[in-house]
# Entry
Amino acid sequence: EAGVAQSPRYKIIEKRQSVAFWCNPISGHATLYWYQQILGQGPKLLIQFQNNGVVDDSQLPKDRFSAERLKGVDSTLKIQPAKLEDSAVYLCASSFLAGGPYNEQFFGPGTRLTVL
Amino acid sequence: GQQVMQIPQYQHVQEGEDFTTYCNSSTTLSNIQWYKQRPGGHPVFLIQLVKSGEVKKQKRLTFQFGEAKKNSSLHITATQTTDVGTYFCAGHSGNTPLVFGKGTRLSVIA
# Structure
């Protein structure tokens, strides 16, 4: 089966510019996650969707970050305006369910963002 | 909030030596997952542990979940160069989202 798709793979922008990332999860996976991974650290959850509803966005900097999953399938994450500290890899993951024995997460290749 | 700590941060071993990484949570966990991330790659799921005291094996990898469900370990027997990467534990506590540790970066010297 096809894995989690993300685009673009790399993005370089200047601070205060805007950027958007796209994710298409594994077919049939109801739960979609966006993570931020700063170099040398573990993934940090930004937002979790169950179908097209938000389950958790407590760590999403809502003054500059936004995300949507309008039809419960693919999703976009936007940063506007970007700051230097947003430089990181943005990982999208999906799972069949959010809990129980089927909640292993499948990660996409990530988007490496550099903010200059 | 829930915190997941891993030690050591880095480990360098000679090929053939054993390797262990430890994971500790500030809260009791519902379950714990382990992921491996190769250099330049993305995290890949290895295993999930659910029961207190659970031990699972995958070839040379042995995973343990503590009796109190607050700690876990991953042990690799006779490391190979293919084991290189960063190993993350990640835990669920109740209905909270999965929280990842900072990982242990393993280097294997041939």
